[in-house]
TrEMBL record:
<dbReference type="GO" id="GO:0004340">
    <property type="term" value="F:glucokinase activity"/>
</dbReference>
<protein>
    <submittedName>
        <fullName>Glucokinase</fullName>
        <ecNumber>2.7.1.2</ecNumber>
    </submittedName>
</protein>
<comment type="similarity">
    <text>Belongs to the ROK (NagC/XylR) family.</text>
</comment>
<dbReference type="InterPro" id="IPR043129">
    <property type="entry name" value="ATPase_NBD"/>
</dbReference>
<dbReference type="InterPro" id="IPR000600">
    <property type="entry name" value="ROK"/>
</dbReference>
<dbReference type="Pfam" id="PF00480">
    <property type="entry name" value="ROK"/>
</dbReference>
<dbReference type="InterPro" id="IPR049874">
    <property type="entry name" value="ROK_cs"/>
</dbReference>
<keyword id="KW-0808">Transferase</keyword>
Amino acid sequence: MEKYVGVDVGGTNLKFGIFLSDGQLIKKWSIVTDYSDHGIHMWKQICEEINKNIEKKDLRGIGIGIPGPVLENGFVEVCVNLDLHNFNPASVLKEYFPDVEIAVVNDANAAALGEQWKGSGQGYRSIGMVTLGTGVGGAIIIDGKLCCGANGLSGEIGHIRVNSDEKEECTCGGVGCVDQIASATGIVRYAKKLLMENDAESSLRMKEEFTAEDVINAAKAGDNVAEHIINHCMKYLAKALAAAAYIADPEVFIIGGGVSNAGQYLIDIIQESFNTYITLSKKKALIIKASLGNDAGIYGAAKTVIG
Ligand SMILES: [Zn+2]
């Protein structure tokens, strides 16, 4: 039976999924990424895992999602969190699997493709995807086609500048990116700043350390300070989504990543704020929650070779 593999390369884990041509996921697993020695071990890990789990005669294609900009020819200049530079994943894997189709895709783009194929983006032709995790990732699909752009920047919604008052530098080298305020890291950072600046009563003060999830839960429970924090951070996200909407005009924005587990509560806040920024048309893009969770990347990677 023809089988396809989707691989999601992450700084912590390598995730694998084996798919049939109709998109049925028949097995998934993950292992810890060993990216020492310029990735030599990582490629070996990937190939060994595939060989262990799938018979060579059945294997038709391998799609691989990479956490960094992928140029049109498949070349990757840098993966910051893996400390890998200047490589072509397809040509590395071709050495191990000469007769198998190999495709390379940026990981956020893979998540968008996955959600459109088998997740909450089904039925939509144009999609904006945003992942709210440690940072803010993004991708744009217009009329069924992934926008890759000239420099791998297309869909990098996280680095749209939205806050001119920001003083600290973003991981991208810029200042005032939405990544700095709407990511899990950004929510906690803004919460700490606000709690330092005033002495308003808040359940967040009971904890020495708290996460973005704690802030969201406090907001849901009616904590005024936490509510203000979430509204503030999501307002900036909505501002960036509005900027993206005026360029790409997708039918939906899909919100994924750990922060999106907050569910409809968060989606409603983003939608309400987003609507206020879109004034040129009555019809606004729908904000919806991603549905594939951590599996979006393996689905999307596999889709690139299933076609
Ligand atoms: Zn940035």
